[in-house]
Design a protein that fits this description.
DNA polymerase, domain 1, flat, Nucleotidyltransferase, domain 5, 385 residues, 8 strands, alpha/beta
Length: 385
């Protein structure tokens, strides 16, 4: 395979010409985001099985020739754990490259475990050991040494081989179509930029708040999210979670009250104090019916419900073993707990998981299926009558 490091417009055009018309392109990125809200693209790796290249966006002002290839809807883009890579394209170029194939959920459908890492998957399927010593590299620094370039290239050199291998096995097992539901969120912009009004639900420590305090939290968390996006800064650089929760708990109505909040710096009070006080006052005065409701942790299961989850776990393991899958690829214990509680948003009742396991597990829970031991082995059978 030809391997390239591309950092001039002429090299980029040549690479794009070589990639044009490919059936698929393996794609990966290296980025940093410790000091920003959005990931900062530092390196772009591509391969079509015949050529593999590292493209340096820090040396190239215009990636249009390559982007035209990556946004070609007739070319499949193959990634591993695709979400953060795709977020870069959505932010930097305002659209997502489609269609995509993510080898991580695909691996789960071939029995390689849930959320397997790239290096482990390469080892399992190709019996190749990849070095992991560059995982903490600052990819914004130049020049990149040969070890860094090798590490980056390997991320796409073997990715294409994984795809070809997995595609064949998924086709043989008639599971390719199962992946549509797993890939759908990757093509939805809301996956990457959730509604700011929902960000209060992700705040660490929110369980300490009640009633109107949650209304204040919703207001401040949405403001923090919008401000972080506008200024391209990490959320915690705008307001740390513990400061956010303390503001909601105390609900100060003046600068003196703000000054008593530990972690809220005097400079920030001078800069944002009036705005914070206004938002706290506005949210605290909302009528009760407009307060958000924190579902919090679900009520503990009863002993009978715990036993039912254990029963479903045994049934799930039998189903997974029959289909040569990891049980976690079908449903987690939390999913089974939701099924027992009768909650609507249960992954095992959606898409291929429902047809493969959800219907059987529901039947087991309702007594229409049962587990029985035959010669020391468990099996799922229809209940008598």
């Amino acid at each position: 395979m030809q391997e390239l490091f591309v950092d001039t417009p002429e090299q980029l055009q040549s690479l794009s010409d070589m990639l044009r018309g490919s059936e698929w392109i393996a794609l990966d990125t290296e980025f940093i985001r410790e000091k920003t809200y959005y990931p900062k693209l530092c390196l772009l790796q591509v391969s079509n099985g015949e050529v593999a290249a590292c493209v340096d966006p820090l040396r190239l002002d215009d990636l249009t020739p390559l982007l035209d290839i990556l946004y070609d809807g007739s070319i499949l883009k193959v990634l591993h754990a695709a979400r953060q890579d795709l977020e870069i394209f959505l932010h930097d170029y305002q659209r997502l490259p489609m269609p995509v194939f993510d080898t991580q959920p695909a691996a789960a459908l071939l029995g390689h475990g849930d959320q397997i890492g790239y290096a482990n998957l390469v080892k399992q399927l190709l019996d190749i050991d990849l070095p992991k010593d560059q995982s903490r590299t600052d990819w914004s620094q130049r020049p990149l040494d040969p070890q860094q370039q090798r590490y980056a290239l390997d991320d796409v050199v073997y990715l294409g081989q994984l795809y070809v291998h997995m595609r064949g096995h998924l086709f043989d097992k008639e599971r390719l179509q199962w992946l549509a539901a797993d890939f759908a969120p990757l093509t939805d912009p809301q996956t990457y930029y959730p509604d700011p009004d929902t960000m209060w639900q992700r705040t660490k420590g929110k369980q300490m708040l009640r009633g109107r305090q949650l209304a204040v939290l919703q207001k401040l968390a949405a403001w923090r999210e919008n401000r972080a996006r506008q200024r391209d800064l990490p959320r915690k650089w705008i307001l740390k979670d513990e400061v956010l929760v303390e503001l909601c708990r105390r609900m100060p109505r003046d600068a003196a009250g703000l000054s008593k909040i530990r972690g809220l710096e005097p400079a920030q009070i001078r800069r944002e104090g009036d705005n914070l006080i206004a938002m706290i006052s506005e949210a605290a005065d909302l009528p009760r019916e407009q307060w958000p409701k924190d579902k919090g942790r679900p009520k503990p299961l009863s002993g009978n419900q715990e036993a039912m989850v254990d029963l479903l776990s045994a049934g799930l393991r039998l189903i997974a073993d029959h289909h040569q899958l990891s049980p976690q690829a079908i449903a987690t214990r939390k999913d089974l707990e939701k099924l027992v509680r009768g909650e609507a948003d249960c992954a095992v009742n959606e898409g291929w998981r429902q047809s493969l396991a959800g219907k059987t597990l529901s039947a087991l829970m309702q007594g229409e299926q049962q587990l029985r031991s035959v010669d020391g082995k468990l099996e799922l059978v229809a209940a008598p009558g």
